[in-house]
Amino acid sequence: MENKSSPRFPLLLRVSRYIRPIVGVIIAIFLAWQLYSVIVVQHNFSADTWVRFGLSGLILGGMYALIAIGYTLVYGIMFMINFAHGEVMMLGAFGGYFMLELLRFIPMPTSANPNLNFLNAYPIVSIILAFTAGISVSALAGYLLEKIAYRPLRKAPRLILLITAIGASIFLQNLAMLLFGPTRKNVINPDILDRGAGWTWMVSGNPVLIPYTGVFSLVLSALLMIGLYLVVQRSKLGRAMRAVAQDKNTASLMGVDVDDVISKTFIISGVLAGAAGVMWDIHMGLVNHYIGFLPGIKAFTAAVMGGIGNIPGAMLGGMFLGIIESIGPAALGIDFQLKDVIAFSILVLVLIVRPSGILGEKLSEEKL
Amino acid sequence: MRTSPVRNGIQTGTIFGIIMVMMFLIGFTVIGAELIGKILGNPSISGMPDLIYFVIFMILVGVWCGVSAAKRPLYGPDSVKDAVLAGLSAGAICGLCAAVTGFIFGSVAANHIDVRAYLVSVSPESISMFTFNQNPTLGALALFGVMTLSSFLSALVAVEVRTSQKIRTMIENTSGSISETVHSQRISDLLNNKYARYGFYLIVAIALIILPRTWGGYWNYVFGTVGIYIILGLGLNIITGWAGQLVIGYVAFFAIGAYTFALLTAPVPHNLLWNFWIALALGIVVAGISGLLIGLPILNLRGDYLAIVTLGFSEIIRILLKSDLLTTFTGGPRGVHDVGGPTLFGSSFNTDVDFMYIIIIAVLVVSFLAYRLQNSHTGKAWVAINLDETVARATGINAFVSKLLALALSAAIAGLAGALFASRNQFTGPDDHQLMVAINVICLVIVGGIGNIPGIFLGAFALKGLPEILREIENYRMLVFGILLIVMMRLRPEGFLPAKRPVLEKFTADQRSSTDPASHPGNLETNTPPGKGK
Fold it and tell me: Which of helix, strand or coil describes residue A52?
């Protein structure tokens, strides 16, 4: 056996060694050629279209970044892909949706407007309530997920954890479908955050709409990311999280309650996912049981792209992926139906060509 | 260090209460009652099942709740009192949850508000059944009473059973004699007896020849599906069960096989109309080659990344098939129709009975292949890689080539299954190749017993055959799969029929050593059940 198997496929082995650089170069050349032909030769789109694409990508990227941080935090600490994270975001979106619906049914008649409801009478309070509801649902879901499904498997191999996470994802998705039905639900915003309204910006003579909802989501996600960064870098909990991510055993010797820190990590990632879910409600306006799956995988892509375990990497990766996804189909001259293919191709390519991501992984020794 | 029994009971009761409320919200209470009605031999032809079946369903939940609450504090000085107390408090909390839900929804229904705009499964009929056709207050009280009483009584009975010396010895004797029979020398002799084995094979062969002719089209359809999933499971088992690489996107190869076959035999879009067998062979080969090509760059990745990359591949393939980009080549979102059926010596061989034979033969061939592979050099190399890749490399196994071979073989088998599936349905489209197919296959492999060939048969029958028989639970199938995956991973990661060889050390080693130091995984001999070793 010793000497038989290695010379059995010598050619194959030699090929496989060079396959990554070759794939990388081929794809780079192809992309460059496509970009050149679309932007310079064909010149289908004017500047305002590109701005519009970039803007929607930025808004989408903010949400991806929030979800991606959840993946990265959990991966950094437990070395598991929390496959159900997208579903946590979906539950948060449902929480926000039901709160908005509830408030819409509370009448607040005034003399000027007898049909006024709570949602439009106190829009800011309503939005805060919606975010509170979504975030609570998601944080609770994350906490319970960890406690029920993952904690008993703390010492199990990673494949078992991954299969459990897939099981949890299927379970939550189908639970939501059976509870709320498979149809899409329209989210009705308060009037001040009307989805069609926004500032207009003139780019090369054409108006570009900058929607209020988009700006709102983007600002909020930026604030949340700054908040998260402060928590991780400055607070005691953040220090404990970083310690656990580096080395669980030593951290517990130093008096860190590892189980508690992992629980809180899941809660934090649930909070961010819930916020992303309510943003999805407000900006996209459609909720069903399936909305968590694709954003979840894309956010995972973003986390890997930035280097999993690396929080600034996840933020950058999310933004980057959002922009690529909305500019990509136009820039490469392919059908807009294929925008998901771009995200998945990036996932595959990043994992094949540079599994450690753009900024590099920050993982401890024990996991590799 | 005993927790108080009441606290214990409240914990259990809360869990069961949440389960109860969830079951009501997803409409499972009605389905449960219907199933019980069916089992008791009184299928309600139309409309709602009788109230009595719902009461039985509730009592069953209460019994389960009481038994699991009584289980925990059994070992102590006051075990009987504690256990009954736990059962009572669990039942009370569970009943309280149900009663509150019943009261709220009962009042809502009494005011003629339809909640189905938000909670689709909560129909007025289901609400009225949940409150025993009474008004909300009375219904809630009845719910509370039924749950508490059944839980309390079942806890009492459970404690009696556990503590009574007479019953205990009886149970021990029975289980002892059963295990004695199973592991007895006579049965293993019978299994090792050449003629007995041949006789068994003969009976199976005759059954397989006769049954498809006699049991009719519906069962041929059901068992054809089961057979195709057995093939898929055997294929996935090679790369996931033996070589230990989780491939979530397994459906990609299924799709490649199905589309290769369909495009070669269908009149639209290419009008090639090839012979069934040549197209089948080509479908297998193309799927295998695609496995090789996809595997080349990715098989060096670590486990969970590999899983996600394959998922990415399968989604890319599905979206491409569904898009307008390839409409002229693959038929686009509408799929490929009129896929060719099998022919034999120039004549058509295309009835459902004939196709059942083809599926049976394919299953037999693939399982024979799997058995031979399992005991071959390559199969052992895969298992070695699964157990510890570094050690396997140190013993001279070329891990990369082995894994590549495993993936190519898996992909080829999936291609066979895909081609058969397309040919049997005479259609293939992008929606036949959803991710859920792959997840079904992963489920059946894991549930049946990962790495074990009879386990895969069991898993396929359980997960694809049973839902066909129990039509009521069709909508709940994926939900149950999710729960099943979580529960299996927690309680029995090696599946219902575990592999005999130490294939699964990787899956079980850590857990076992953490819970039970006596059966340390270092000693592989203890994993071999008595009377079954080689």
Answer: helix
